[in-house]
Amino acid sequence: MRTGGQRTPDELIDRYQIECRPVRDLLVDYLRERQPALDYNSLRDLAYFLGRRFWRDLELHHPGIDTLHLPADVAAAWRQRLLTRPETATGRDGERTAVPVPRISFRECLVKVRAFYLDLSQWALEDPGRWAHWVVPCPISREDIGTRKHKRQHKARMDARTRERLPVLPVLVRTVDQRRRTSGALLQAARQTEPGAAFTVGDQTLIRSVLRSGTAAARIWADDPRTGKRRDLGQEEEYAFWAWAVVEVLRLTGVRIEELLEISHHSLVQYRLPTTGEIVPLLQIAPSKTDVERLLVVSPELADVLSTIISRIREPSGPVPLVPAYDWKCVWMPPAPLLFQRRFRTEYRAINHGTVRKMLQAALASTALVDPSDGRPLNYTPHDFRRMFITDAIMNGLHPHIAQVIVGHQDINVTLGYKAVYPDEAIQAHLALLARRRSQRPSEEYRAPTDDEWEEFLGHFERRKVSTGLCGRAYSTPCIHEHACLRCPMHWPDPAQHARIVEIRDNLLARIDEAQREGWLGEVEGLQISLAGANDKLAQIDRRSPQTVGLGIPSPRWTDTPTDQDR
């Protein structure tokens, strides 16, 4: 198997064909200085962002550029180009066009370019002869790399992705299991069928292909009369089986993809409980991202999956084949009895990251699930199963600190960041609050009203209408002003009855004058209270009525000595 292995800083930068030799040498020296503190993947990403996304992009759009001191317009144009990336879209007529889509990693590129400029400034203090002539103002400010809003957007995007995929996960599980069983039955039936004969499994009828004598006997082909295509049943069965195995192990453990591919026969260990003596099967996860190994309890469902995998790859003599694995750090690991391995021609090979993703895509194509955001086929990545595992575990009562230990996070906030917050949680909590309040109130308040009670309730509002407006007092409460509505603050005056209220006010004024003239002082006080209420209702109507303000007609202002333009 041909593998590139780990590249040197020179090889990492030369992949992007940088034309300016001094800048190319600077980037190589920078990578060499950073190399001892970075793992290979981080070094490779740094070379990509600095070499391809930063400098090579500047050379393509500004030929001849040879300095890190970027003009403001050049830096602004580069940042604008970094925000989007081209993506090929196929129209209804089959025409393929490139459309710009947002680039998710643009902020990561800005951070690395800013760190590059600041590192040069810091190193120039220690070794000015080597770095000082490269020190220039950084084209990226601190505000450009603010992470608070970016983190919130990333969290919202990942939560939405989890909420879309977790409810349909049972569909994917059923589909991959059905594909595994169907493909296995087709392969078994084809092996028992003579070339040229037809065989049927379920609703599929195939014809075993007649091959030339030089074709390898290990591969079994069949012709599909409905589509006219020739199918490799052995490869279909293999892809279906390993897609099922990947989905089951990922959803039951929440491990990372590199941890999944490093599970070996030796990873299965036993632990005896000191209290009861019960033997508990454990799955040992090799150190990966955090360089800390951990142990997971093997559930009966996971044990069945692992047992099926071991039975498939075990040699007739008994042991699991030893295969070397090409690590995600681009180094060869010593041979080990890995569980995720498959036969390739005459040898066994470890399954790699790219093959896992191809198997998942092939399995998802059979589910007919679509992404609600864009209508495309729904896509699952191996890391989606990790987010769904954490979300499902915490929602079903697992303490977040225990989930942190299971998935191997060093910070509890990272675990909580993986957990998608469902609106259903807020809804259920609100319904529980309402239920508690309802349980504390008299039960007769929630009985069904009788016809008489309902008629009385509707008639109550009909009896609220008075000559000057509406009464707004609560249902089934008496009038505290003995139906003197103009005195009541709950009286809502009707603007259409403005003239009637004015007439009542004028009548009250006349009655007050008559009472004062005749010496009926006992009535004066009551009439004055009613007058104040009438004036208040008129003021309420005036406040609610639209008022028109006349601005007049503007007239020109002439100076003492008009100019020619004025004339």
UniProtKB/TrEMBL annotation:
Q: Which InterPro entries match?
A: DNA_brk_join_enz, Integrase-like_cat_sf, Integrase_catalytic
Highest taxon of the lineage: Bacteria
Q: Which PROSITE patterns match?
A: TYR_RECOMBINASE (PS51898)
Q: Where is this region: Disordered?
A: 545-567
Q: Which UniProt keywords apply?
A: DNA recombination
Q: Which Pfam families match?
A: Phage_integrase
The residues covered by the Tyr recombinase domain are: 205-431
UniProt-recorded name of the protein: Tyr recombinase domain-containing protein
**Spans of biased composition, class Polar residues?**
558-567
